[in-house]
Amino acid sequence: MSLKNKFIAGFGWNTLTVASQSIIQLVYVAFLARLISQEAFALMGVALSLVGFAEIFSQIGFGPALIQRKEITQEHINGAFFTSVILGVTFTLGFVLAAPFIAEYYNIPELEPVIQVISISFTLSALAIVPKSLLFKKMDFKKFFTAAVVSIVGGNLIVGLTLAFLDFDVWAYVWALFVQGALMAIMVWVLNPIKITWKWSWPHTRQLVRYGGGSTLFNSLNYLESVLPPP
């Protein structure tokens, strides 16, 4: 397939992925709003805003760095994978330990276990970052579409709504996110298996960090701009 045809096909699959995710998410939230309490939504809003911002830093831009780099060696792949996993586990443990203090600060005791479970997303995202980024690099959006639909349907529609019907309230939302993240990690490895070796070179990793650091700063500023009130 020529580069032009590959780009057109990739654009089509990417558009389909975004549209499908948006529609499924709208349906999910519409049903969920009728099944769980407003307090549960407010609780998740606080937890997701904290974890969402921290997740930008937990990956230090390895995804964009892998996608933009013209030549990727095994050392780049190893460095991105192991560094991402170490950071992901570190952020997970950090939020697990910090959860009691966060809950006390907001005066919401129920926030502690919610944050502790949601923080596992740092590790799940870290495990998925290399195969997912290389799918984008290859413009293989058809496989990413499959992974995205399986994860969001399995996590949100099947697990989330089932638990909501069973009156799990906020935990329906929490476990839906957990399953969605776990399924995404599994699917990208199944659809795009990547060879990982123990050969880890800091100079190769540093090349990715240099680009990823700028990407992380840009994303963090965008995030803050989206959540902060206008002057």
Short descriptors:
single chain, 231 residues, 0% strand, disordered C terminus
Amino- and carboxy-terminal Cα gap: 50 Å
* Count of discrete domains: 1
Oligomeric category:
single chain
Mean pLDDT across the residues is: 87
Number of helices: 9
* Residue fraction in strands: under 5%
Biggest β-sheet description:
none
Which runs of at least 5 residues are low in confidence (pLDDT < 50)? 226-231
Number of strands: 0
Write the H/E string, N to C: HHHHHHHHH
Structural class by secondary-structure content? mainly alpha
Using the CA coordinates, give the radius of gyration.
Answer: 19 Å
Share of residues in helices = over 70%
Shape: globular
Describe this structure in words.
The protein is mainly α. The chain has one domain. It has nine helices and no strands. It has helices spanning 3-35, 38-58, 62-68, 74-106, 111-118, 120-137, 141-165, 170-191, 202-227. Helix 1 (3-35) packs parallel to helix 7. The longest helix is centred in the first third of the chain and has 33 residues, at 3-35. The protein is globular.
Layout of strands and helices, then pairs:
Blueprint: H1 3-35, H2 38-58, H3 62-68, H4 74-106, H5 111-118, H6 120-137, H7 141-165, H8 170-191, H9 202-227
Helix pairs in contact: 1-7, 2-4, 2-5, 2-8, 3-6, 3-9, 4-5, 4-6, 4-9, 6-8, 7-8
